[in-house]
């Protein structure tokens, strides 16, 4: 395995930004049972050559330690000597970076995104229309309608990763795994966070709207 040297200043900036986002999301209880993962791309990008920092596997994300993150390459392999193990879902991050050229990918497990993904799982997508928060995705037409893809939650992560390119829509920066969670991304951490927050608002709205319609 060949390693690369990532400039110290770039590493420190990425780790500081990811650490701050991790703390915010942990405060919202978006990482139950060590679940979820965050990544931020560093340095230059081509579809077959890029690097990013990602949460290490099995860490309690409600606390901060020097071993919270590690750097990996476009195949999800550590690109520096480390005893840390990348998140089990690193390959999905790799595919999203490869397909979109984005700068950050955030994945969280919440009750609302799980319920909504399960409800619409057989349809393969969650339909949304007319909600104000659609504007968070830079979609500005009146009464806009979008769909968020829902992929099956296979136990083998490579099986999921190979499906990403077939459903990914660059205009809709999110993919759900059925009964699992949401992947949201953006050109940088700020945009990815905005997208994720918008998705989570939309999922809660959909769930509560379904309850009202059935009552």
Automatic annotation (TrEMBL):
Keywords: Amino-acid biosynthesis, Lyase, Metal-binding, Methionine biosynthesis, Zinc. InterPro entries: Aldolase_II/adducin_N (IPR001303), Aldolase_II/adducin_N_sf (IPR036409), MethylthioRu-1-P_deHdtase_MtnB (IPR017714). It is an enzyme of class 4 (lyase). Pathway: Amino-acid biosynthesis; L-methionine biosynthesis via salvage pathway; L-methionine from S-methyl-5-thio-alpha-D-ribose 1-phosphate: step 2/6. Residues 16-207 form the Class II aldolase/adducin N-terminal domain. It catalyses: 5-(methylsulfanyl)-D-ribulose 1-phosphate = 5-methylsulfanyl-2,3-dioxopentyl phosphate + H2O. Its EC number is 4.2.1.109. HAMAP family: Salvage_MtnB (MF_01677). Catalyzes the dehydration of methylthioribulose-1-phosphate (MTRu-1-P) into 2,3-diketo-5-methylthiopentyl-1-phosphate (DK-MTP-1-P). This is Methylthioribulose-1-phosphate dehydratase. It comes from Paenibacillus bovis.
């Amino acid at each position: 395995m060949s390693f690369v040297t990532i400039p110290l200043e770039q590493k420190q900036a990425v780790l500081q930004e990811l650490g701050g986002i991790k703390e915010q999301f942990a405060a919202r209880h978006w990482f139950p049972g060590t679940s979820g993962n965050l990544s931020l791309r560093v340095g230059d990008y081509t579809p077959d050559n890029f690097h990013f920092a990602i949460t290490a596997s099995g860490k309690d994300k409600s606390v901060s330690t020097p071993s919270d993150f590690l750097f990996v390459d476009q195949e999800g392999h550590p690109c520096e000597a480390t005893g840390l193990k990348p998140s089990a879902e690193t390959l999905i991050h790799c595919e999203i970076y490869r397909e979109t050229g984005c700068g950050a990918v955030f994945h969280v497990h919440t009750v609302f995104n799980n319920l909504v993904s399960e409800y619409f799982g057989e349809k393969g997508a969650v339909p949304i229309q007319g909600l104000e928060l659609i504007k968070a995705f830079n979609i500005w037409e009146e009464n806009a309608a979008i769909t968020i893809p829902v992929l099956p939650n296979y136990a083998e992560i490579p099986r999921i990763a190979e499906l990403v390119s077939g459903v990914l829509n660059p205009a809709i920066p999110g993919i759900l795994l059925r009964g699992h969670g949401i992947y949201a991304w953006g050109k940088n951490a700020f945009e990815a966070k905005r997208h994720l927050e918008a998705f989570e608002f939309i999922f809660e709205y959909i769930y509560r709207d379904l309850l009202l319609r059935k009552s």
